[in-house]
Structures are given as C-alpha cells and as structure tokens.
Amino acid sequence: MPIAALLMLLGATTGPPPERATPPVFVTVNYGLTFRAPPGSYYCPLQPDWVGSDHGTVIFLDRPKMCDGAGGVSNYRGFLPVNVPRIEVFYAYALDPEDRLPPPKCVSAGRVVLFGAPRKLCVERHHGVSTYHVEADYRFDSTGTLEVTLVTDDRRRRGDLTMLRRFLSSVAACHSKTWHRERRRDGNFLANCPEGDWY
What we know:
- The chain contains 2 helices and 13 strands, in the order αββββββββββββαβ.
- With 199 residues, the chain is mainly beta.
- The chain has a 6-stranded antiparallel beta sheet with strand order 5-8-12-11-10-9, covered by helices on one side. Strands 2-3-13 form a 3-stranded antiparallel beta sheet.
- The longest helix has 14 residues, at 157-170.
- The radius of gyration is 18 Å and the shape is globular.
- It starts with a helix and ends in a 26-residue tail after the last strand.
- Mean pLDDT is 87; it is low at 1-13.
C-alpha cells in the first residue's frame, strides 16, 4: 500500500489542515488582545508541527480554495486564491517613536473607531481590489501596536466595510498576567482576557 494511502487510513495528514470556521472569540494572552470574528468566516489552521511566534492571524470572509501552511510568524498564512476577501490582523510590542519608520502615504477612506477612539482608515485600490488599513497603539500589560487590514473587491466593498467597523468595535485590550494589572489613564483596571481561542 502506498505511504500516502496508509497515512490517510491512519488519519494522518501530510500537508496543512483545510480551512475551518473561525471560533467566535479570539484571544492572545501574549499581547493582551481580544476580538470577535465575523460570523460565517474561516481561517487556515497552523500546521500541527508549526513552530513560530504569535503576531496575528488571517480571517477569511469567503472560503479559501486552499490553505498552504504558515511561515515563522503566525500572521503569514499561505492560501489561494490570493485575492480572497479577508481581514489580516497583526500585533506586536510597540516600538519607541524614534525607532519607527515614517508612516506610508495614506489615501483617506474616512475614519473608524478602534480602542474607543477615531482612527484614520487608509485605502489602496488596484484592478478592482481594495485594501483598507487602520492601526493604533494600545496598553495592556505592556504597550502594543495593532494593524488591521481589510482586502475586498468592488462587489463586496460596501458590505465588508460595514463588517469591518463592527469587527473593530469588538477589538479590546485585556489583562493577560496574574501578577500585575495595568491601570488605565481613567484610573480603572483592564478587564481580564475572556475565554476564547488563539488561531
């Protein structure tokens, strides 16, 4: 019997797992961040032997035709087709202002609310595909930076922008350590991170 057929009979996989429905609540305790995934969305799971660092995820708004593993950081997911509508989420510890690159040129697409404050939404358009980008720093047990990118097409753009605003309203910083709790500027403590999944 061929090895591939034997592996299939044993329930083993030789490649990355197929796409799955996103769990409703995403949580990273490493970066004190949580959000609610859009209903009916998908993600490409990390391969079982994946080793790398936690820096985000990709949420697909339409089912990808193929998942193709991930790189050394969790937000670099392989998938096809390359223009599948999606939300890309990247987070990291914030750099000091003097260590940051100048911000890229922004073509404004209005403003959205993220972490309770209005933020500039930037857009790039190429061949019917629009890429919207928003970013903000936030405080958890440290200082983090979050970048959210929506990739959509002309047919879906209006609905996906409405969905993006709803998604951003669910994004929140949360307390992720037991030995210290960060006091916010308003004098209150951060809420504990909710029960959820990291994917």
